[in-house]
Design a protein that fits this description.
The structure holds two protein chains of two kinds. By secondary structure, chain A is mainly α. Chain A has 16 helices and two strands. A two-stranded antiparallel ribbon of chain A has the order 1-2. The two termini of chain A are 25 Å apart. Chain B has one domain: P-loop containing nucleotide triphosphate hydrolases (Rossmann fold, 3-Layer(aba) Sandwich), CATH 3.40.50. Chain B has ten helices and ten strands. In chain B, the strands form two sheets. Chain B has a six-stranded mixed beta sheet with strand order 6-7-8-3-9-10, sandwiched between helices. In chain B, helix 4 packs across helix 5 and helix 4 packs parallel to helix 6. In chain B, 49% of the residues are buried. The chains are: A mainly alpha, B alpha/beta. At the A-B interface, helix 1, helix 10, helix 11 and helix 12 of A face helix 3, helix 4 and helix 6 of B.
Chain lengths: 337, 268
């Protein structure tokens, strides 16, 4: 790189992408802080962090589709449902308790479902893609809801406590979730987070960004639009499925509400809240959402009203989300020096 | 680039359309268009608005399938193969309107094309920044198209002329055999037009591009750089001749272009 181009990069808004480059370090920092949490935080707080980890994984996937590829899915909770019901089917129907096997199966099943749905959805973009994914999400929810004999209908299906690395935990539920399970899924978050970072920093990820920016031009420089969109859809579904598995183990229940469209809406909310333009943003959004929801639900039964208000304020005043706001403050500070 | 003249046109063409027609219902956008491009040629397609120039480029680049006819490139039929396959076979295209990836940097924009050419996509965990071969190639293309100083600038912050160059540069990054340019200089100042064309022609030589086909309104540029002019009128080929001959015929000019003949002669 010439010195001339270095000069240029200081004068153009390129600087704003600085924290993005370091996204993986923010993730590692977050994981490190979370690894220390059991030493200081109450079990109640830790019980909130376990679903957060599930959401964070799902959101990494969601944002590969939304932030990176430019496809906004309104049915992504479907894959959380697939993950959850895979976990419940394996544990309660087949007696398979190995968590590794459950996670792996959830990933495979989610990928298979995503290939079928993706082939039909990724030919479309914008609102058409959004509506189609929404429709598939609703179809899947109806299936879970109506096929009582298979899915337990509105009762859902129990998810038994899994074995971690083949070991059984004999303590209480809270101790399991805030102890070994917490660390296990935190490690999973680290692994899948770093993997996602690699994906976004690869030529593969660059082709996805090119599709988001200008699909028409991308085709002329050799980007295989359909294949790449489908690949992004499948990868995001795998992350969704694994996230859903974690959520289901946490509550001990695979509930049709997990696949309901409002849950898909929550995923969109989390991504917007945290900021889909950065790598870590959606995970931050998931954390903020889980904490905010818990806080608001404790003080009022009209929590949806409050959350809606937050979303309105967010879109108007912080369109780049929390991470976007931090980035902006950061670059402003950098500019003052 | 320079030596190509009428004699080589008789030889096997690099690229040709044979009796291409394109209809939209009753509307005839192209009718029986045949023309050839030989190795080393710079061919300009001219004609008034609505003559079918852009339709022709779209047919030739596989965006549109001709209703009738054949498009042959390196002796294979490429009608309707689609842009990705076309790029792989060695034909690339730059667009009439400014067409960039707004949020990507110049480096990233060029890397998109280089990554397709070097087939770096199959492994999603492969590092982009540590791929020396790919990065070196990106820098080579940027150097040739004089965008080196802007490598880390975001495309949306570039000037209009630079955006045009970037679009052309991503076409070059595919190491194409033939480049098709749809009004490469539209929307840029006169001074920039010449600068862009100079960079383009020099880059084509350096990069081993074997032919350039452009759609162009600016007769000054057409006269200066083309080896041959294909004039379209209402979807048919009105003339296919060297620029000297073309500009010597005032009737031709007023019929096709509707402007006075330029005073500038072709360079070299």
């Amino acid at each position: 790189m010439s010195e001339q181009s270095l000069d240029l990069s200081l004068t153009t808004p390129v600087k704003r992408t600085w924290p993005r480059v370091k996204g993986v370090w923010v993730l590692i920092g977050l994981i490190a802080v979370m690894a220390l949490m059991p030493l200081v935080a109450s079990p109640y707080a830790l019980l909130l962090l376990v679903p957060f980890i599930g959401y964070a994984i799902a959101l990494f996937g969601f944002n590969l589709l939304f932030g990176t590829t430019g496809l906004l899915s309104f049915g992504h909770a479907l894959f959380l449902g697939v993950g959850a019901y895979t976990a419940s089917t394996l544990t309660s129907k087949f007696g398979i308790l190995s968590f590794e096997l459950i996670v792996l199966t959830s990933a495979v099943v989610s990928a298979l479902v995503a290939v079928i749905i993706g082939v039909l959805c990724v030919r479309y973009t914008r609102i058409f893609f959004g509506m189609l994914t929404l429709a598939f999400g609703m179809l899947f929810h109806s299936f879970l809801f109506k096929f009582y004999s298979v899915t337990g209908g509105d009762q859902g299906m129990r998810v038994l406590r899994p074995l971690l690395l083949g070991m059984e935990w004999r303590g209480g539920k809270t101790a399991f979730l805030t102890g070994p399970f917490y660390y296990y899924v935190l490690a999973l978050l680290a692994l899948l987070g770093v993997a996602m970072w690699r994906i976004t920093q690869s030529p593969f990820g660059l082709h996805l960004k090119a599709i988001r920016e200008n699909a028409g031009k991308a085709a002329y420089v050799g980007v295989q639009i359909f294949r790449m969109r489908l690949a992004a859809f499948v990868i995001s579904a795998v992350y969704g499925g694994i996230g859903g598995t974690i959520l289901a183990v946490t509550t001990g229940l695979a509930d049709p509400e997990l696949a309901y469209w409002t849950h898909s809406g929550n995923l969109v909310f989390m991504a917007v809240l945290g900021g889909s333009g950065t790598f870590i943003g959606p995970a931050v959004g998931a954390l903020a959402f889980v904490l905010l929801q818990d806080f608001v639900m404790a003080i009022t039964q009209y929590w949806r009203f409050v959350m809606g208000g937050v979303l309105v304020l967010l879109v108007i005043f912080l369109p780049q989300g929390l991470s976007g706001a931090v980035e902006m403050l950061w670059s402003r500070k950098g500019g003052d020096k | 680039m320079q030596q190509a003249q009428a004699s080589s046109v008789v030889d096997t063409p690099l690229f040709e359309t044979i009796g291409v027609s394109k209809y939209y219902g009753a509307y005839r956008a192209l009718h029986d268009v045949s023309f050839r491009v030989a190795d080393g040629e710079f061919v300009s397609i001219v004609g008034p608005n609505g003559a079918g120039k852009t339709t022709l480029v779209n047919v030739v680049t596989g965006l549109l399938k001709p209703t009738v006819g054949e498009v042959r490139f390196l002796d294979r039929d490429i009608a309707g193969v689609g842009p990705v396959e076309l790029a792989r076979r060695g034909m690339s295209r730059a667009f009439q309107l400014v067409n960039v990836f707004p949020a990507l940097t110049v480096r990233e924009t060029l890397a998109v094309a280089v990554a397709s050419r070097l087939r770096r996509i199959a492994n999603p965990f492969r590092s982009l920044s540590r791929d020396r071969e790919l990065q070196a190639d990106v820098e080579r293309v940027a150097e040739v198209l004089r965008l080196h100083a802007k490598l880390d600038s975001v495309a949306s912050t570039l000037s209009q002329g630079e955006k045009k160059l970037l679009d052309i540069a991503s076409a070059f990054a595919l190491n194409p055999t033939v480049i098709l340019l749809d009004e490469p200089t539209s929307g840029v100042s006169t001074g920039d037009k010449h600068a862009i064309m100079e960079v383009l022609v020099t880059a084509a030589k350096a990069a081993g591009v074997r032919a350039i086909v452009q759609v162009e309104h600016d007769m000054d540029l057409v006269a200066r750089y083309s080896h041959r002019i294909v004039a379209l009128q209402e979807g048919t080929v009105l003339a296919d001749m060297p620029p000297d001959q073309f500009f010597a015929d005032p009737a031709m000019i007023s019929a096709v272009v509707g402007t006075r003949p330029p005073t500038v002669r072709r360079a070299s």
